[in-house]
Design brief:
single chain, about 130 residues, mainly beta, seven-stranded mixed sheet, four-stranded antiparallel sheet, about 0% helix, about 50% strand
């Protein structure tokens, strides 16, 4: 079992940057593929970015490619989402998710993650 706690959300003007962090409990963090998803008011939760168990593989939604970067530090049990050039349409609650895997390089874009954080609000004003 793993528990996830997101932080780093807040309010920012369009064009600004934020870095989200997701701290995971447990000693086997390196065995989990990680993902970031978001949900805007009135919309379904959508995939944002994902990183493989080893950190060698990453994947992004087309809407954030080139602006967002996902990374992880297995020594700190933490995954990050660096968000640059933020737009008003990036406003959402951002969720971190974890998925146990034996595939070290695989990236999971679907929402079938076993563990989820409670989310952190990101608000971008234009």
């Amino acid at each position: 079992q793993v528990q996830l706690v997101e932080s780093g959300g807040g309010s920012v003007q369009a064009g600004g940057s934020l870095r989200l962090s997701c701290a995971a409990s447990g000693r086997t963090f390196s065995g989990y593929a990680m993902g970031w998803f978001r949900q805007a008011p009135g919309k379904e939760r959508e995939f944002v970015a994902a990183i493989s168990q080893s950190g060698t593989g990453t994947g992004y939604a087309d809407s954030v490619k080139g602006r967002f970067t996902i990374s992880r530090d297995n020594a700190k049990n933490t995954v990050y989402l660096q968000m640059n050039s933020l737009k008003s349409e990036d406003t959402a609650v951002y969720y971190c998710a974890a998925r146990w895997t034996v595939s070290s390089g695989f990236v999971y874009r679907d929402p079938k993650y076993a563990y989820w954080g409670r989310g952190t609000q990101v608000t971008v004003s234009s």
